[in-house]
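Objective 1b: paired records.
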Amino acid sequence: MQNYNSRLEYEVLKKQTNILERKLKLFKYVWIISFFAVIVSVWTLQASSESQNDTLRLRKLVIIDEKGVERVIIAAPVPEPITLGKRFSRGGNSSGILLFDEEGNERSGYVTTDGYPNVLFTLDSIARQQVLFMTEPHGSTALWIWDQNNNSFQLNVGGESPNLKLIKDGKEMFAQPIGEKKEK
């Protein structure tokens, strides 16, 4: 009977420890984001100062976690993305802010591209991009969302009229120029 109670107490303590570990991880991320916000605030205050000596000029700022893993990079240009430990080509230079998970995989970015100056905001799974929100320099905007099964939602605004596409298993299921009248 005592062995059963000890085992039950052990399981309760194990669950409580797991909950506390999750809360600690959340606190760590909140702390990192807060620290990043303070750095950006100080940077902004320094940049708005009248004196050139009060300006901080960098090509790259890297925030690392307690294990030395790069978690946030602000750079011009940002490095090529790392996914599952492999570096891939971005297809051109971009400058902005990148966020990485605890394994060092790029998970999000807010950047401008060189050459054709788009502004991009991305959300990525561990293996690939899942959400892209993009604005082109002359105002066209796109929101694309993918899942791991090659399903997607694509909304584009610009050009002649807005359009919407729904793709399932790689095949277009629905495409509609919004606002265009259909003939009967």
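Objective 1b, second protein:
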Amino acid sequence: MRAGLAAMHILVVAHNIVRGDGQGRVLYELVRRGSQAGHRFTCLADRFAEDLLGENVALIPIKPGFERPVLFKVLRFARLADRQLKRLDLKPDLSMTVGFTLRTPMDVSLAQFVHAAWMPVLRRYQSELSMAGIYQRLFTAINRRAEAKAYKDSRAIIAASALVRDNLVQFHQIPPKKVHVIHNAVDPDEFQEKTDDLQLQQHALDVRTSPIALFVGDIRTPRKNLDTVLKALVHVDGLKLRVAGDLRGSPFPALAKQLKVDNRVEFLVFRNDIADLCARSDFFVFPSRYEPFGLVVVEAMAAGLPVVTSKTTGASEVIRPEAGFVLDDPNDVTGLSSAMRRLTEDAVLRAQMSFESKQIAKRCNFDQMVESYLALLANLTIKH
């Protein structure tokens, strides 16, 4: 961590400041490592990691009272957070939040998703007008409008990828100089230690002969693009696919059966033990149609898995050709099946890419991410 930064008091307003959540993990590491470096944090949050509390970290709980539907929770949280800030006599050096979290203008907004960029993709691939489909469009439309105001009202935006930066410029006309790209990160040592132990156990017991690809993500919507993965699997003999995601209302088990690959696809319930899944897999496939970053991609690389993804996934920006395949078009069945086939048939290539994946993940670490955050926040404080 860079020395010499003056201690700051930072107000953070977010739904989640926890380890087991993508954007929540970013804030968790910022608060944890930033407070250890002497900075003070006041946090307004619904879900909060209690181990963060200490001399430099204070929590003001915001409990919206809703878990489902999420839209009600989001709107209720915003009202409660706005009301709480009016009551408090806080004078932080800087305030920050994630996208649309409240209506009170904040100094810094973390852009981990751009609903305006997702909306056209949703309209294209979700043709059914079921209640779930209508709800998703309503949720996206409301967040798109609220985010636009939040991003324009903030002094600076931290984008999780260059993809997000470009989305902000294109869809919300945000000046490029206002957007700072800081990639999300992973703890490579922690992740690799867990995975190495599990792989040793797995290799001692494993009698499989077929390579296994792993897919992790929401499989109830078209965003993560499991349909294209299943279509590509048809053309890759000898490959099995493990899918981890919430099966409730998912159309993909039926699609696997329709494509006659259901005997090679194992659908698992949603799981957080990504290290365990990676230890039992040979490569990771994730051609998401819209993914602002995709922390799971870097986690898979930290576990030593070659990856197959697409340019519409922000994490693709850190991948070199030696570590995986990045498709120009996430819907390219031919290109996807070709990449999956190469990794299925070439164990030497998998081993080479495994090594390179680990090296990239080591550079995408939380120390560097938090250092970049704090340096930017300090610079904004000076200009305040």
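The chain is about 45% helix and 15% strand. The first strand starts at residue 9 and ends at 17.
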